[in-house]
Predict the structure.
Amino acid sequence: MRAVVQRVIDARVDVDGQTVGAIERGLLVYLGVGRGDMEEDVRFIADKLMGLRVYPDDQGRMNLSLCDTGGGVLLISQFTLFGDCRKGRRPSFDAVADPETAEALYERCADLLRQAGLTVAAGRFAAHMHVTATNDGPVTLLLDSRQKRGGEPFQS
């Protein structure tokens, strides 16, 4: 499972001209589910998102987490995070999980974040979405659950 995490002042996602999810201060998370991902991967990503210390403390150091600051999460499903661009000009998506598995694990991640007391807004799985955000910093991080499992990060 892969995530691109951006610290934002605000973010929203629109589908067919209607806003389906929005947050103020928090994290915009693009989440990709790969073939072979399972509950362990979801827990790794959710725990990381809750604990990432990306907000400044009183001394201006990034020492505070989303749980410390009470920010929200806008969770966007993005299978293209598993796109392999090494050959040719068209990305290969062979490493992407099947849609049923991907949706279940995406929803599970949202549930885990909500269970931790976070406000979670979400896009619509498999929809064409327009995402708008005001980046803060900017702070952008990459997470890959396979790093924990000892595999090579960001390889298809």
User: Anything to note?
Assistant: DSSP finds three helices and eight strands in the chain.
